[in-house]
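Run log, item B.
One chain of 293 residues. Sequence copied directly from the ordering sheet:
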Amino acid sequence: MEYREFGNTGIRVSALGFGAGHIGDENKDGKLVETLLNTVLDLGITLIDTARAYGASEKNIGLYLSHRRSEYVLSTKVGYNDPWHPDWSYETVIANIDDALKLMKTDYLDIVHLHSCGQDVLERGDVITALEKAREQGKVRIIAYSGENEALAFAINSKKFASLQTSVNFCDQRGIADYLPLAAAQGMGVIAKRPIANAPWRHESPPVGHHSEAYWHRWKKMNPDPHGLPWDELAIRFTVFSEGVSTAIPGTSSAVNLKKGIEAVEKGPLSPELYEYLRGEFKKYDEGWTGLI
């Protein structure tokens, strides 16, 4: 596993992280979840990303991984679903953080993102103030923003955040030129979500209602040549080694897929020719393809 500095935050992360959305199903067998989470760490993955919206994910991390808390960087996302306060309020952000600490059985959270709120919420400022308060109290180490497009640009330019999370994959390249250089200039850590574009190649026809639907249409429009590589390997290597990316977080419930992802990273960057070919295909067929939330 390759390990990298997470911007100028003083934290190091594995180049491949773990997106914990797939362990949020309350009906999943607890023993399987426990085995998967511990396998994540045993494989050398040191960043785990979850969110308030991911069902039982935070609870499962607390149940099955809190005894190994010193071995991983813990990232979550907040801003909504508090029964006592409105979404995107100061009070809700504070309550979400306190809930996350309890659920994940930890005294601190390494990274806490505002989870894809709009620019209007950021401009209002109270949710940022809530993150800053939690940081002052030692509950949070790094305050961050997760999102896309104009709101992401605003978050970067506000200089309030030390890291960001955004979609980066060969079907979603807007941020590579428009936002990652801005983040790098400020020493921000960057978590790349959806690094395999939600695997559109799994579907013969448009996966209506599926998270990969928009990516499927982009993939078909681009019709890129994988140059003999398996799609998942090409996708992982494209994202993980795009300049400015600190770590990428494929989501999976399969230890086999985790191992395949690590093997792909171990092969290193794509050849410069193949990487630039994929960049060129996106630019050629770009129809206003902005980042996908």
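Observations after the first pass:
- The chain is about 40% helix and 15% strand.
- The mean pLDDT is 96.
Flagged for discussion on Thursday.
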